[in-house]
Amino acid sequence: MADTNVKRDFVDPKVLGRLMGLPLHARHPMLGAVSGRHRSPIRGSSLEFAEYRKYVPGDDLRRLDWRAWGRSDRYYIKEFEADTNLRMCLIVDTSGSMNFGEETGNHISKLEYARRLAGTLAYLAANQGDACGVYCAGTEFHSEIPPKRGAIHLGVVLDKLAEMEADGETGLADSIHEAAEKISQRALVIIISDLFVPPQDLKSGFQHLRFRKHDVAVFHLIDQNEIDFEFDRPTRFIDLEGGAPLLADPTLIANQYRKAVKGYLEEVDTLVRDAEIDYHRVGLAEPYDNVLARFLLGRTPKTKK
Q1: Which of 38, 96, 147, 158 is in Cβ range 3.0-4.6 Å of 87 for a Cys bridge?
Q2: Do 31 and 42 form a contact (C-beta atoms < 8 A)?
Q3: Rounded CA gap, 94 and 97, in Å?
Q4: List of domains in the chain
Q5: Span 211-235, mean pLDDT?
Q6: β-pairing, 38-54 with 76-84?
Q7: How far is it, in rounded angstroms, from Cα 58 to Cα 96?
């Protein structure tokens, strides 16, 4: 049962009001148990024509195309795309590095930003009749709430998001592999993380998800300070994932640091492109409703002319 004492203030009614008119679409055919707005790989009866195939004994005669028979003297069956519901699985990084951000100006932490993204997406999915679930990816894959439909289950998901805390080392790469195995049916898998992992460690995980036919989206959270590295005096850098602190003069390492970050981001761009990931690099200073609006609009199916 959901805990009514847990705050859900990370779900903003004003943001929901802005985004409610933008449906959440899957980029690839889904497999669901009930009818919905998403394409299914299973052929059935709907309004959207898919293709013709030759008649075989036992086929429903009502689906014969008599015009095709009149033109070719052969029997053909009309097939249509069956619509189904979506399973959305949110994987939220809860490693210690997700605490970064609060001390940099007026920005919130990466975890709080992730909470707002995930909570809003869960609400939008539930509102259109889709199933949603959430998984915490810290040192290991834990706190699993498999996707289900309904208002009560949405409350459980939101409570879990509210309870999340960032701590310990990252286990994101292993968590992605575990998710690929545990999420048995095709789903929209949304990963919200700072990707504080060597890109090559992420590559096989992304490929694993795509091999299992999941539609994968990634929100890569990054603070501008992590890119600019504009420190001008000796600074004590703290490893939020438990490593030893480091005292360094930024002026001596800034160029090497920025070069390393540039190379890292280029590697990430390459691997998400090769794995056909719906990738979004997100700065903590950007309003999260703008990020979600761009994400939803980018998934709107192209209208057929």
Answers
A1: 147
A2: yes
A3: 8
A4: 13-25+86-298 (3.40.50.410), 38-84 (no CATH)
A5: 90
A6: antiparallel
A7: 59
pLDDT band at 243 (very low <50, low <70, confident <90, very high): confident
Tell me: the pLDDT tens digits for 8-55? 889 999 999 999 999 998 887 654 444 444 444 444 444 444 456 676
Cite the beta strand spans of the chain per DSSP E: 38-54, 76-84, 87-93, 131-137, 141-148, 188-193, 215-222, 235-237, 246-248, 278-283
Query: Locate tokens 């056909």: which residue?
Result: 276
Count of Cβ atoms closer than 10 Å to residue 267 Cβ = 15
Q: pLDDT tens digit string along 116-140?
A: 999 999 999 999 989 999 998 877 6
pTM: predicted TM-score of the whole model, two decimal places: 0.79
Report d(CA 38, CA 23) in Å as an integer. Answer: 10
C-alpha closest to that of 178 among 97, 95, 89, 96? 89
Distance CA 16, CA 287 (A): 13
Quick check: 50 and 95 in contact, CB under 8 A?
no
Degrees to nearest 5, angle at CA 144 with 138 and 147: 130
135 contacts 89 by C-beta, under 8 angstroms: yes
Residue 216: name the closest of 243, 186, 250, 239 by CA.
Answer: 186
Instruction: Return mean pLDDT, the chain.
Output: 83
Among candidates 240, 218, 258, which has minimal Cα distance to 100? 240
- Distance, CA of 14 to CA of 79 (rounded, Å): 42
